[in-house]
Amino acid sequence: MKQCLDKRFEKLLHAYELGILSDEDRADFEIHQMECDYCFEQARQFKDPVYLIEHDPDVRASIKQMDEEKSSDAAGTRDAVPGTGRRRFPGRLTPLRAVFSVAAVLVILVLKPWNIEFKTDQEVVASDNRLAVMYLVDSTYEQEAEKLGNIVTNLLITDLSESRRVDVVSSQRLHDLLNLLDRERTETINLYVVQEVADKTRAKWMLTGSIYQTQSALVITTELVDVATRSTIATQRITGSASESVFTLVDRLSAKILNDLSLPDSAQLEIDGPVADITTHSLEAYRHYLEGVDNYYKLYWREAVQSFQSALQYDSTFAMAYYYLARIHDPEHIARAVQYSSKASQRQQYYIRSMQASVEGDVSKAVEELEQAVQDCPDEKDALQMLGLYMYTLQRYEEAIDYLTRVIEIDPLHKQAYNQLAYAYDQVGDLEKSIWAIGQYISIAPDEANPYDTRGEILANNGMIDQAIESYKKALEIKPDFQSSRMNLGLLCALNGDYVTAQSCFEELATVSDAGMRSTGRLYLAYIPLYRGQYEAALRILDEGIASDIEDPGNWATASKHGLRAVIYRERGDLLLALDELRKAADITRETWREYEFLARRLLVQILAELGDTDAAEQAAEELRRDLIEAEQNISAYWYAVGSIQFAAGNMAEAVISFEKALEESDRFPLPGYFMLGRAYLEADRLGEAVQQFERLHSEPADPRLYFGPSTVKSYYYLGLAYERSGWINDAIEQYERFVDIWKDADPVIEEMDDARARLAELKNRP
Length: 767
Known about the structure:
Layout: H1 7-18, H2 23-35, H3 37-45, H4 47-55, H5 57-69, H6 71-74, H7 95-111, E1 130-133, E2 137-138, H8 148-161, E3 167-168, H9 171-180, H10 191-201, E4 205-213, E5 218-226, E6 231-239, H11 246-260, H12 283-297, H13 301-314, H14 319-328, H15 334-339, H16 346-359, H17 363-376, H18 381-393, H19 397-410, H20 415-427, H21 431-444, H22 450-461, H23 465-478, H24 483-495, H25 499-509, H26 515-531, H27 535-551, H28 558-572, H29 575-589, H30 594-610, H31 614-630, H32 636-648, H33 652-665, H34 671-683, H35 687-697, H36 702-707, H37 709-726, H38 729-742, H39 751-764
Parallel strand pairs: 1-3, 1-4, 2-4
Antiparallel strand pairs: 4-5, 5-6
Helix pairs in contact: 1-2, 2-3, 5-7, 8-11, 8-12, 12-13, 12-14, 13-14, 14-16, 16-17, 17-18, 18-19, 18-20, 19-20, 20-21, 20-22, 21-22, 22-23, 22-24, 23-24, 24-25, 24-26, 25-26, 26-27, 27-28, 28-29, 29-30, 30-31, 30-32, 31-32, 32-33, 33-34, 34-35, 34-37, 35-37, 37-38, 38-39
C-alpha cells in the first residue's frame, strides 16, 4: 500500500485519533481519509490502543486533574461559536488542554505496563452468526439530517438479512439501543458505544462505517470487527459512479461483507438478489417508508399513515407500505400488499400472509404463518410479539405472557412487548408486574407519549384515577396531538367531575384531522350532559353530531349516537322512540360491526319487555340467539335479553340466573349486565351480592361507564338502598350524597332524585 503523499495529513493522524484537532482540521482529515487508503488503514489500526487510552482510569484521572488546574486558561476556548448556538469542540479536548493532556498520556504510556491483548472468553457469549450493523456516519452534509446514512444502513440490514447464514440485528433494535445509551443515529459513535451495543445484542460481528460524497461519486467505507477480540476482520470500500443508485451500491457492499464473513461454504451458493427488488427502486419512497416505520414503533399512527401514503405516491408497488397501512389504517390495503408481496423480503412475506389471513377471519392461519417465521428464525421477535398480541385478543392471557416474555429475552429493549405485557399482566390480575412492565417501557422510551398513555390506562383500570390523569397529561406534554391520551383524559375528567377539562378535550377531538376521531369527539361531547342527568342537552348534541356525520366522511360513531339516543329515550320513558333508535343502530352496524348490532338488539328486547309485549320480546330474543350462533358469537346478549324479560315480569329468581349466565359468557360491554344483576339481587333481598355487582360496575373502563351514564350514576342510589337495608347508615348516606351531587343540575324528571333526597334527610335526622 502506498504511503500518503500529503505529509500534513500523515502528521495529523495521531492527533485526530486522540481527538485534539480543531473542527476544521478534523473535517479536512476525515475527507482526506475517504480518499486515501493509507490513512484510512492507519486510522483503523490505531483504534484499539486509542480506546484503551480514552477509557483507562489513570489517563482520565490525570486529564481531569490538569483540566481543573488549567480551567481558567481553557475557559476562553469553550465559548459558544458565534451564530451557531454550539460549544466549540463539543466532547473533545481544547488545544490548551491537549498540550498538557498529551504529555500526561505519554508519561502514563511509558510507565504503565500496557498489555494490548484482548481475551476471547468474553462474559457475554455471542450468537454463532449474529451481525450488528451500526448506523453509518453520514458525512454527505445533506440539508435534511438523518437521511442518507439511515437509508443505507436500513437497506444494508434488509439485504444482509436475506442470507439464511447470518442473523442480522434489526434496525429498530439498534435504534432502541442507541436511545438507551443516549446516542443519536447521526452522531459519530465511539468504540465504547459499539462495544455496549455488541454486548447487548450478543453479536459475533460488528459493522461500522461512514458515507461521504466527493465531487464525482458517493463513497461508502465499512469495517467488519470480531466482537470477542475487537480485531478487524476486513474493511470494505465502495465508490459509486455518478449514475449509480444507492441501491446498487448497497448490493455491492453486501456482497463484499458476506464474502468477508467466516460463513459455511453453502452460504456462497445463496443467490443475492438486488435489494431494490425486495424494497423499492425509489429513494424517496424508501425515505418516507422509514419515517413511517419509525412512527409505527412509537405508536404515532397518524404520522405513520401519512408517511406510508407518501411512500406510495413515489412507488405504488411498495408492498410493505401497504402492509403497515393495513395494520394501522385500513385492512383492505392488505390486498395490495399481497399483490406486490414478491417485492418484499422472505421474512416480510410471512407477515403479509399472516395479516391477509387475519383480515379474512382465519386466525389459525394468521398464527400459523407467524409460527413458521419463528421456526425459520427463532429470534424473530416481531413475529413472537404479534403471536402474543393474537393470544391476548383471544383472551389467552397466559400464553400471551409466554410469547411476550420470549420477546424480552431476545430483545430486552422491545417497546411493544413491554407495552402488551403490561396489559396482559393486568388482565390476569398481577398489577405489580403490570406496573413493572410499563416502567421498563418508560425507561426505554422516556420521550415517547405511548408508555405514559398505557400507564394511564393501567392505573385507571385499577381505580387510581388521579394518578391516571397525571399520566395522560404527561403523554400530552410530550406529544400534544396524541389523541388517545386526550380522549382518555377527557373521559376520566368527566367521571371525576372536571367537566371543563373534559369539554375541552372532546371539543379538541371533534376538530382533529382524522374523520373517525372527529365523529367520536362529537359522541363524547354528549357524555358530559348525559352523565349529569341533563337528557335534553345530550339529545341536542347527539342531533348535531348525527347531522355532522352525514356531511363528514368517516362517520363510524353514528351508530353509537343512535344507540345513545335510545338509552336516553328509555330513561325518559319514551320507549317507542327508543325502539326506533335501536333499529337504526342495528341497521347501520349489521354489515360492519355485528357486536354492536347484537348489543343494540339485546336492549331492544329489554324495552319490548318493559312495554309489556312479552310475546314480541321472546320472539326477538330467539331471533337474537339464532343469529348469534350463526355468527359464531357467544350468546351473552341472548341471556341478557332473557333476563330482561324475566325481570320485567317480576320473576327475580329466574332473572338472576339469566343475568349470571350473561356475565359468565360476556366479553364486551358487561356494564348493563352488572347493573341489572345488581338490581335483581336487590329485589330478591340478596343485599351483599347486589353491592358486589354495583361495585364491579365501577371497575369498568370510563367509556362504557359514561355511555351508560344513567346506570352508572343510579348505581350509587341502589348502593345506598342496599347499605340502608343492611343497617350501614353512614355508607348509605355516602352513596346517596354522591348520587345527588352528580345529578344536582339534572333535568327535573328523574324520579330517583326525590327519593334519594328524602332518604338522606331522614337518615341524617336520626337520633
